[in-house]
Amino acid sequence: MNEGIQNQFNVYGLKMKKAFMVKSVVLAMVMAGGISSAMAATSGSSSTVNGGTVEFKGSVVDAACAVTADTTNQVVNMGQVRLAAFTGKDSVANQKTPFTIKLADCDTTIASQASVTFDGNAAAGEAGVLDNTSGAGNAAGVGIQIYDKDGSALDLGTASQAVTLIDGDNTLNFSADYYQTADTATAGSVDTTATFNVTYQ
After folding, report:
1. In sequence order, what are the residues at sequence separation of 6 or more whose Cβ sits closer than 8 angstroms to the Cβ of residue 153?
2. Taking the CB of residue 182, how many other CB atoms lie within 10 A of it?
3. What are the residue boundaries of the structural domains of the chain, listed by start?
4. What is the pLDDT of residues 153-185, one digit of tens each?
5. Cα 89 to Cα 191: distance, rounded to the nearest angstrom
6. Stretch 46-67: mean pLDDT, rounded?
7. What's the rounded Cα separation, in Å, for the pair 151 and 99?
8. Is the pTM of this model over 0.85?
9. CA–CA distances in Å: residue 49 to residues 39, 53, 142
10. Please, which residues have CB within 8 angstroms of residue 118's CB and are 6 or more apart in sequence?
Protein backbone atom coordinates (compact mmCIF):
# COMPACT_ATOMS: atom_id res chain seq x y z
CA MET A 1 0.00 0.00 0.00
CA ASN A 2 1.16 3.49 -0.80
CA GLU A 3 2.74 5.18 2.24
CA GLY A 4 0.58 8.30 1.79
CA ILE A 5 -2.58 6.26 1.70
CA GLN A 6 -1.42 4.34 4.75
CA ASN A 7 -0.85 7.58 6.67
CA GLN A 8 -4.33 8.81 5.69
CA PHE A 9 -5.85 5.60 7.06
CA ASN A 10 -3.89 5.98 10.30
CA VAL A 11 -5.00 9.60 10.74
CA TYR A 12 -8.59 8.68 9.96
CA GLY A 13 -8.43 5.80 12.44
CA LEU A 14 -7.07 8.07 15.18
CA LYS A 15 -9.85 10.59 14.55
CA MET A 16 -12.47 7.86 14.72
CA LYS A 17 -10.95 6.49 17.92
CA LYS A 18 -10.90 9.95 19.53
CA ALA A 19 -14.48 10.60 18.43
CA PHE A 20 -15.57 7.26 19.87
CA MET A 21 -13.80 8.01 23.17
CA VAL A 22 -15.40 11.47 23.40
CA LYS A 23 -18.84 10.02 22.70
CA SER A 24 -18.24 7.31 25.30
CA VAL A 25 -17.25 9.89 27.94
CA VAL A 26 -20.26 12.07 27.14
CA LEU A 27 -22.57 9.05 27.26
CA ALA A 28 -21.09 8.00 30.62
CA MET A 29 -21.62 11.51 32.02
CA VAL A 30 -25.20 11.60 30.80
CA MET A 31 -25.91 8.19 32.31
CA ALA A 32 -24.26 9.20 35.59
CA GLY A 33 -26.34 12.36 35.65
CA GLY A 34 -29.48 10.36 35.02
CA ILE A 35 -28.67 7.94 37.83
CA SER A 36 -27.91 10.84 40.20
CA SER A 37 -31.18 12.53 39.26
CA ALA A 38 -33.07 9.30 39.83
CA MET A 39 -31.40 8.80 43.20
CA ALA A 40 -32.10 12.41 44.17
CA ALA A 41 -35.72 12.01 43.15
CA THR A 42 -35.97 8.83 45.21
CA SER A 43 -34.28 10.28 48.31
CA GLY A 44 -36.41 13.42 48.12
CA SER A 45 -39.72 11.59 47.87
CA SER A 46 -42.24 12.37 50.64
CA SER A 47 -44.75 10.32 52.55
CA THR A 48 -47.34 11.08 55.22
CA VAL A 49 -48.01 8.90 58.26
CA ASN A 50 -50.29 9.25 61.27
CA GLY A 51 -48.13 10.79 64.03
CA GLY A 52 -50.57 10.87 66.95
CA THR A 53 -52.39 13.63 68.85
CA VAL A 54 -51.51 16.87 70.63
CA GLU A 55 -53.68 17.94 73.57
CA PHE A 56 -53.78 21.57 74.68
CA LYS A 57 -55.01 22.32 78.20
CA GLY A 58 -55.48 25.57 80.05
CA SER A 59 -58.16 27.92 81.30
CA VAL A 60 -59.30 31.51 81.11
CA VAL A 61 -59.73 33.19 84.51
CA ASP A 62 -61.55 36.37 85.47
CA ALA A 63 -59.19 37.36 88.27
CA ALA A 64 -56.48 39.82 89.26
CA CYS A 65 -53.67 37.41 88.25
CA ALA A 66 -53.07 34.22 86.31
CA VAL A 67 -51.24 31.22 87.78
CA THR A 68 -48.27 30.39 85.55
CA ALA A 69 -48.31 27.15 83.55
CA ASP A 70 -45.20 25.78 85.29
CA THR A 71 -46.83 26.00 88.74
CA THR A 72 -50.43 25.13 87.84
CA ASN A 73 -49.59 21.41 87.81
CA GLN A 74 -46.20 20.85 89.37
CA VAL A 75 -44.28 18.02 91.01
CA VAL A 76 -42.33 18.79 94.18
CA ASN A 77 -39.41 16.37 94.41
CA MET A 78 -39.02 15.71 98.14
CA GLY A 79 -35.97 13.51 97.75
CA GLN A 80 -35.06 10.67 100.09
CA VAL A 81 -35.04 10.80 103.88
CA ARG A 82 -33.88 8.17 106.37
CA LEU A 83 -36.51 6.42 108.47
CA ALA A 84 -34.30 7.20 111.46
CA ALA A 85 -35.02 10.92 110.92
CA PHE A 86 -38.41 10.45 112.60
CA THR A 87 -38.61 10.33 116.39
CA GLY A 88 -42.21 9.21 116.75
CA LYS A 89 -45.78 10.19 115.95
CA ASP A 90 -46.18 13.87 114.97
CA SER A 91 -42.44 14.25 114.32
CA VAL A 92 -41.04 15.63 111.08
CA ALA A 93 -37.96 14.75 109.08
CA ASN A 94 -36.66 18.34 109.30
CA GLN A 95 -36.02 18.28 105.57
CA LYS A 96 -38.22 21.04 104.22
CA THR A 97 -38.42 21.29 100.45
CA PRO A 98 -39.35 24.73 99.10
CA PHE A 99 -41.85 25.23 96.29
CA THR A 100 -43.60 28.23 94.82
CA ILE A 101 -46.81 29.29 93.16
CA LYS A 102 -46.21 32.01 90.61
CA LEU A 103 -48.75 34.61 89.59
CA ALA A 104 -48.39 36.50 86.33
CA ASP A 105 -49.89 39.62 84.78
CA CYS A 106 -51.25 40.83 88.12
CA ASP A 107 -53.38 43.97 88.16
CA THR A 108 -53.44 45.65 91.57
CA THR A 109 -56.39 47.82 90.58
CA ILE A 110 -58.46 44.63 90.75
CA ALA A 111 -56.96 43.10 93.93
CA SER A 112 -54.07 44.01 96.20
CA GLN A 113 -53.55 40.72 98.06
CA ALA A 114 -53.52 36.99 97.36
CA SER A 115 -53.66 33.90 99.56
CA VAL A 116 -53.60 30.17 98.79
CA THR A 117 -55.70 27.36 100.24
CA PHE A 118 -54.44 23.79 99.85
CA ASP A 119 -56.72 20.78 100.10
CA GLY A 120 -56.40 17.03 99.75
CA ASN A 121 -56.81 13.67 101.46
CA ALA A 122 -55.84 14.30 105.09
CA ALA A 123 -54.18 11.64 107.23
CA ALA A 124 -56.34 10.16 109.99
CA GLY A 125 -56.42 12.52 112.96
CA GLU A 126 -54.12 15.01 111.20
CA ALA A 127 -56.12 17.89 109.72
CA GLY A 128 -53.09 19.58 108.25
CA VAL A 129 -51.19 16.60 106.84
CA LEU A 130 -51.63 15.02 103.43
CA ASP A 131 -51.98 11.25 103.71
CA ASN A 132 -49.67 9.06 101.68
CA THR A 133 -51.19 6.97 98.91
CA SER A 134 -51.61 3.43 100.20
CA GLY A 135 -50.36 0.47 98.24
CA ALA A 136 -47.54 -2.01 97.84
CA GLY A 137 -44.13 -0.42 98.22
CA ASN A 138 -45.43 2.80 99.78
CA ALA A 139 -44.38 4.09 103.18
CA ALA A 140 -46.93 3.66 105.98
CA GLY A 141 -47.46 6.14 108.79
CA VAL A 142 -45.89 8.97 106.78
CA GLY A 143 -47.53 12.01 105.19
CA ILE A 144 -46.65 15.47 103.93
CA GLN A 145 -47.00 18.71 105.90
CA ILE A 146 -47.21 22.00 103.99
CA TYR A 147 -45.73 25.17 105.49
CA ASP A 148 -46.45 28.83 104.87
CA LYS A 149 -43.85 31.40 103.82
CA ASP A 150 -42.83 32.04 107.45
CA GLY A 151 -42.37 28.33 108.19
CA SER A 152 -45.61 27.88 110.14
CA ALA A 153 -47.61 24.70 109.51
CA LEU A 154 -50.51 25.24 107.12
CA ASP A 155 -53.62 23.13 107.67
CA LEU A 156 -55.53 21.79 104.71
CA GLY A 157 -58.53 23.95 103.91
CA THR A 158 -57.02 26.98 105.66
CA ALA A 159 -55.88 30.02 103.70
CA SER A 160 -52.23 30.98 103.80
CA GLN A 161 -51.04 34.38 104.94
CA ALA A 162 -52.05 37.06 102.45
CA VAL A 163 -49.29 38.37 100.21
CA THR A 164 -49.33 41.97 99.01
CA LEU A 165 -49.33 41.99 95.23
CA ILE A 166 -47.40 44.16 92.84
CA ASP A 167 -48.32 44.79 89.23
CA GLY A 168 -46.88 42.10 86.98
CA ASP A 169 -45.30 38.93 88.36
CA ASN A 170 -45.53 37.69 91.96
CA THR A 171 -44.14 34.59 93.68
CA LEU A 172 -45.78 32.92 96.68
CA ASN A 173 -43.37 30.80 98.72
CA PHE A 174 -44.17 27.58 100.55
CA SER A 175 -42.38 24.43 101.69
CA ALA A 176 -43.20 20.82 102.58
CA ASP A 177 -41.75 18.19 104.88
CA TYR A 178 -42.24 14.52 105.71
CA TYR A 179 -44.49 14.02 108.74
CA GLN A 180 -44.96 10.86 110.85
CA THR A 181 -48.70 10.30 111.15
CA ALA A 182 -48.77 7.06 113.17
CA ASP A 183 -46.97 5.44 116.08
CA THR A 184 -45.01 3.31 113.65
CA ALA A 185 -43.63 4.39 110.29
CA THR A 186 -42.27 2.12 107.59
CA ALA A 187 -39.95 2.78 104.67
CA GLY A 188 -41.31 3.10 101.14
CA SER A 189 -42.45 5.56 98.51
CA VAL A 190 -44.37 8.72 99.35
CA ASP A 191 -46.78 10.06 96.76
CA THR A 192 -49.67 12.39 97.54
CA THR A 193 -51.50 15.22 95.82
CA ALA A 194 -52.88 18.56 96.96
CA THR A 195 -55.15 20.88 95.06
CA PHE A 196 -55.02 24.62 95.63
CA ASN A 197 -57.15 27.71 95.17
CA VAL A 198 -55.95 31.29 95.04
CA THR A 199 -58.06 33.97 96.70
CA TYR A 200 -57.62 37.58 95.57
CA GLN A 201 -58.83 40.45 97.72
Report:
1. 128, 145, 146, 147
2. 17
3. 1-48, 66-200
4. 999 999 999 999 999 999 999 999 999 999 999
5. 19
6. 95
7. 12
8. no
9. 22, 12, 49
10. 146, 154, 156, 157, 160, 194, 195, 196
